[in-house]
Design a protein that fits this description.
The complex is a heterotrimer of chains A (162), B (81) and C (755).
Chain A: E1 3-10, E2 13-20, H1 25-32, E3 51-54, E4 57-60, E5 73-75, H2 88-95, H3 105-118, H4 124-130, H5 142-155
Parallel strand pairs in A: 1-5
Antiparallel strand pairs in A: 1-2, 3-4, 3-5
Chain B: E1 2-6, E2 19-22, H1 27-37, H2 42-47, E3 49-53, E4 56-58, E5 71-76
Chain C: H1 24-29, E1 44-50, E2 56-62, H2 64-68, E3 72-76, H3 85-88, H4 91-100, E4 105-106, E5 112-118, H5 121-130, E6 132-137, H6 144-148, E7 171-179, H7 182-188, E8 191-199, E9 211-216, E10 222-226, H8 231-241, E11 249-253, H9 269-279, E12 283-286, H10 289-295, E13 301-310, E14 316-326, H11 335-341, E15 350-358, H12 373-390, H13 395-402, H14 421-430, E16 442-451, E17 456-464, E18 470-474, H15 482-494, E19 501-505, H16 521-549, E20 556-559, E21 562-565, E22 576-577, H17 578-583, H18 585-588, E23 592-600, E24 606-616, E25 623-633, H19 640-659, E26 690-695, H20 717-729, E27 735-736, H21 740-749
Parallel strand pairs in C: 1-12, 8-27, 10-11, 14-15, 18-19, 25-26
Antiparallel strand pairs in C: 1-5, 2-4, 2-6, 3-5, 7-15, 8-13, 9-10, 9-12, 13-14, 16-24, 17-18, 17-23, 20-21, 21-22, 24-25
Helix pairs in contact in C: 11-12, 12-20, 13-14, 15-16, 19-20
Classes of the chains: A alpha+beta (162), B alpha+beta (81), C alpha+beta (755).
Bound molecules: FE2/S2 (inorganic) cluster (2 copies).
Chain lengths: 162, 81, 755
């Protein structure tokens, strides 16, 4: 089998890897690079558990080929906290019980961060539509939406972010 | 003597009898007594049933005591999700 | 077992105030290890070949070409799971083995027939294509009524209804529940409603597919890492199916990405084990989503006939149900649970419920939150609301008038102890959502629901560390924050801060047996055992203090994390904290620990009442949920936000079942929608916020009054949504899900008859 050599940037670091033609970016992240934060819930682009950011856009990494990442910049859940310090979204997810089993959480956090970087003050409806590609079976979404709202308020510097 | 009531279709295996007066100190001995009074019940009882004593369900504890005036029901084996 | 029952205890310091959870940081940073996140050096990847037919005889399997493919290390089929006496003595296990790997016949589309282990997943997939299976296709049946009809294709030649009779059948079991004179009850009624309802098979829909990593060493001992609701169950089932000694197999539960009942059995673990045994290498096996849908447990689908009567003052006089449940290829459809729970919210004088457990050519049903109850409640709650409408009574008042109460006789027989249905109905009625005015094409639906809740075998072990912190080991996988509850209960008992307790899920080698974790059991049973283990540790701590002070043990008591003299006569000693006692444990008698093993019973039923407002689009048939309220009795909410989360999650699963989710089969008996695109579970934009109100009627069977909460919340939504749609359209949905095409048809067939 022919392998391609790929050079890409992941969470700010330059990374090189070899991959098969049919391997997805998700396969590469998980199986070759040991970055298992992105999850495979379906492999067909329907669940969002594998969500990562590529050149500023959120993508289902199960639909991107490993080879396509060449020369791109990828951001994953592993790069979201700065050392010990959690991103406000991560903190509000924890405090607001926005996760139960947590399998959907990495994908949702990556997607939500991309939203808040584009739109610091999204309405409930905007959040719901933005996250409509990220399935969560445990929570019924209520606490996820609230956590995103609360994190957004904090990031806007509104002190009474409850 | 506690009154032991079978679930509806179980009484078919007890020649139509729905209720038994059984003198037994705990669940295990009550089930044994029931099985010898109505032998056709025995295979079902051995496979596992749920026993309700005064409204509380017991799936496992054979030594749970039964008071003489307890209300006892035999119900199908149950499981949750 | 004398437990210090103090359900009136109100002054909790930790319980009820938990903020974050111990596994939380790992789960928001991507570090948490789920089933598919484990790797082992030299690991092989396995894939399973599945039946393309609904029902077929396997005439032969030729694996030689697959075995010859470079990179393939082993192939297994049913022949690799030979009979053994222990296995054959257990009918359930024989069926599980048959479900894990087809023998003789395949029984459904997706039934496993062979598996391959290869150097990478791509080679394994390629190898599957080289396995040649010669099938003789047989007639199939996937519908419950057709499977019960005379002349239906028979799945199991040896199956007899309740083990009796001579004729092969697809009806595995029948059951009858009830009391009172049903005919007399209907004679007393002024109004009678009689209808038939169907509900599709819904999948649990956990986002994490089944995954495991098995590793058998040359000496015959093995390890499995997997996502499961019960790793002790996995160990015992796998050992028996693979003919291993139980002690030779150690199972570690990974973090679990949802289960809801669907991970209370095994599917792939014995396959990975057999492949690892054959190759001598670790084998990882991860299901695809397509496999999850085709081969793991959805619920039973049901066809339910209900007849209920009431007087003109609103007293239900008789309640009758016939429940036909198909549970896929093997016996076990929970029609018995359906029959017992159907009328459990009410106290009709006469009640009779009949259940049928039917096999069909579909994947074997698996438990799903309150198994068997939601589809029965859908039918009953529809009829209850229709009766209320008929006599012009408010649906909540009607339910209140007939509600099961503490001390009333349950429809399944026994007398209820303390229950909280009335409290949920009253709170629902008083809630502002119940009086918000509705617009055109909008309707409000009410429904109540019941679930028993169970305990189970539980072992926990609690160790006091050298610095006075506490390590708690439990054997029930954490399916949604239960570690936090365990930490809270241990901290509460020991009088120490929540942060000082760490809870881990111990592997099967480190702890006594624990039953599978179902949705309602963990906080109740593991919590009960945790409390008792902590109490045992306190006894040890007090004994050490007594030794140090040179006074009798009963002269010492535990308060706020310290040993103190029990009374003025015990002498004057400054308190000894857990930290001080822990530091000198070595010199005062050795490590300080408490453990507890119990078969916990008495979980206490939980009731809920839901109110939903829905709007119907008459053009497209789309139903929008505008508002949703859950009121549920939690007994005592240990972690209120997590209790809310469980309630919301369950309700939304029920909404999905009501509106969209179902298994769709084509005329060949093949599943048409084995993916999230076509099997559509609710997404964020489908829903409003889900309002919750927790009612606390303490459970007398638990020291803190805790009841199970995880399951009840999926019971009312089907009926509540159906009632809202009926109110909005004037036509009553009798088939769930009420997908847009179904609703359009319904409105066309029965235009606007006000109810
Ligand atoms: S795994 Fe990529 S969308 Fe589901
Ligand atoms: S928390 Fe389990 S799927 Fe979202």
């Amino acid at each position: 089998m022919t392998h391609s050599h790929v050079t890409t940037t992941i969470n700010g670091d330059t990374v090189d890897y070899l991959c098969d033609a049919e391997e997805t970016l998700l396969d590469v992240l998980r199986d070759r690079l040991g970055m298992t934060g992105a999850k495979e819930g379906c492999g067909t682009g329907d669940c969002g558990a594998c969500t990562v950011e590529m050149d500023g856009r959120i993508v289902c990494s199960c639909l991107v080929l490993g080879a396509e990442a060449d020369g791109r910049s990828i951001r994953t859940i592993e790069g979201m906290a700065k050392g010990e310090e959690l991103h406000p979204l991560q903190r509000h997810f924890l405090e607001g019980a926005a996760l139960q089993c947590g399998i959907c959480t990495p994908g949702i956090l990556v997607a939500a961060r991309a939203l808040l970087e584009k739109n610091p003050n999204p309405s409930e409806t905007e959040i719901r539509y933005w996250l409509a590609g990220n399935l969560c079976r445990c929570t019924g979404y209520d606490k996820i939406i609230r956590a995103v709202q609360n994190a957004a308020a904090e990031m806007r510097g509104e002190s009474n972010a409850a | 003597m506690a009154k032991v009531v079978l679930w509806g279709s179980l009484s078919r295996l007890a020649d139509g009898r729905k209720e038994f007066d059984i003198d037994a100190p705990d669940i295990g001995r009550m089930l044994a007594a029931l099985g010898s009074e109505a032998p056709k019940l025995k295979p079902i009882l051995d496979k596992g049933v749920t026993v309700s004593i005064d409204g509380t369900l017991y799936r496992l504890d054979r030594f749970k005591t039964i008071d003489p005036d307890s209300e006892v029901f035999i119900l199908p084996k149950m499981a949750g999700g | 077992m004398p437990l210090d029952h103090n359900p009136d205890k109100k002054d909790f310091k930790v319980v009820g105030h938990v903020k974050t959870r111990p596994d939380g940081v790992d789960k928001v940073t991507g570090r948490a290890k789920f089933g598919a996140d484990m790797f082992a050096p030299g690991m092989l990847h396995a894939k399973i070949l599945r039946s393309p037919h609904a029902h077929a005889r396997i005439k032969s399997i030729d694996t030689s070409k697959a075995e010859a493919l470079p990179g393939v290390k082993a192939v297994v089929t049913a022949a690799d799971f030979p009979d053994n006496p222990d296995l054959l003595a257990n009918e359930e296990l024989v069926n599980i083995r048959y479900n894990v790997m087809a023998r003789g016949k395949v029984l459904y589309d997706g039934h496993a027939v062979a598996a391959v282990a290869a150097v990478n997943p791509r080679v394994a997939r390629q190898a599957l294509k080289l396995i040649e299976v010669d099938y003789e296709v047989l007639p199939h049946v996937v519908d419950v009524e057709l499977a019960m009809a005379p002349g239906a294709p028979i799945l199991h030649e040896d199956l007899r209804t309740n083990g009796e009779g001579d004729e092969p059948t697809n009806v595995a079991r029948t059951i009858e529940i009830g009391h009172g004179d049903i005919d007399a009850g209907f004679k007393e009624a002024d109004f009678i409603v009689e209808r038939t309802f169907t509900a599709g098979a819904a999948h649990q829909g956990y986002i994490e597919p089944h995954a495991c990593l098995a590793n058998v060493s040359g000496d015959g001992s093995g390890e499995i890492w997997c996502c499961t609701q019960g790793h002790f169950m996995v160990r015992d089932f796998c050992a028996q199916i693979c003919g291993m000694e139980v002690s030779k197999l150690r199972v570690t539960a990974s973090e679990i990405g949802g289960g809801f009942g669907g991970k209370t059995t095994i599917f792939i673990e014995p396959v990975a084990l057999a492949l690892s045994r054959k190759t001598g290498r670790p084998v990882k096996l991860v299901m695809t989503r397509d496999e999850v849908f085709r081969a793991t447990g959805p619920t039973a689908s049901s066809s339910t006939h209900i007849k209920m009567g009431c007087t003109k003052d609103g007293v239900i006089t008789a309640a009758y149900a016939e429940l036909h449940y198909q549970g896929g290829a093997f016996p076990g459809a929970p029609s018995d649970m359906g029959a017992m729970t159907a009328f459990a919210c009410y106290q009709p004088k006469a009640v009779k419920a009949l259940g049928w457990d039917v096999v069909t050519n579909r994947p074997k049903q698996a438990a799903y939150r309150a198994p068997g109850a939601p589809m029965a409640a859908f039918a009953v709650e529809s009829v209850v609301s229709e009766l209320a409408a008929k006599i012009g009574m408010d649906p909540i008042d009607f339910r209140l008038k007939n509600a099961a109460t503490s001390g009333s006789r349950s429809s399944y027989g026994p007398t209820y102890s303390d229950i909280g249905l009335v409290e949920t109905l009253e709170a629902a009625k008083a809630h502002p959502n119940y009086s918000i005015p509705l617009g055109p094409n909008q309707g409000r639906g009410v429904a109540s629901g019941f679930w028993f809740n169970f305990g189970g075998q539980t072992a926990v072990s609690l160790n006091v560390n050298i610095d006075g912190s506490v390590a708690l080991s439990v054997g029930t996988p954490d399916i949604g924050g239960s570690r936090a509850s365990m930490c809270a209960m241990a901290a509460e008992e020991l009088g120490i801060p929540y942060e000082n307790v760490q809870t881990i899920i111990a592997d099967t080698g480190s702890l006594g047996y624990n039953d599978v974790t179902d949705g309602s059991r963990v906080t109740f049973a593991s919590g009960l055992a945790t409390i008792e283990a902590a109490r045992n540790a306190k006894k040890v701590l007090c004994a050490r203090a007594a030794k140090i002070w040179g006074i009798p043990e009963d002269a010492v008591k535990w308060e706020d994390g310290c040993a103190i003299p029990a009374g003025p006569n015990a002498g004057e000693f400054p308190p000894l904290s857990i930290k001080e006692l822990a530091a000198q444990a070595g010199e005062t008698g050795g490590p300080i620990a408490g453990h507890y093993e119990i078969s916990a019973d008495g979980a206490g039923p939980s009731f809920a009442t839901h109110i939903v407002d829905a709007e119907v689009d008459r053009e497209t048939g789309r139903i929008t949920i505008l508002r949703y309220l859950i009121v549920q009795d939690a007994g005592k909410a240990v972690s209120p936000t997590y209790v809310e989360g469980q309630m919301q999650g369950g309700a939304v699963q029920g909404i999905g079942w009501a509106l969209n989710e179902e298994y769709i089969y084509n005329d060949k008996g093949l599943l048409e929608n084995p993916g999230f695109l076509d099997y559509r579970i609710p997404v964020a934009s489908d829903l409003p916020m889900i309002d919750t109100q927790i009612v606390e009627v303490p459970n007398p069977g638990h020291p803190y009054g805790v009841r199970g909460v995880g399951e009840t919340s999926i019971v009312p939504p089907l009926g509540a949504v159906a009632n809202a749609v009926a109110a909005a359209t004037g036509t009553r949905p009798q088939e769930l899900p009420v997908s847009p095409p179904r609703l359009l048809k319904l409105m066309k067939d029965q235009p606007l008859a006000a109810e």
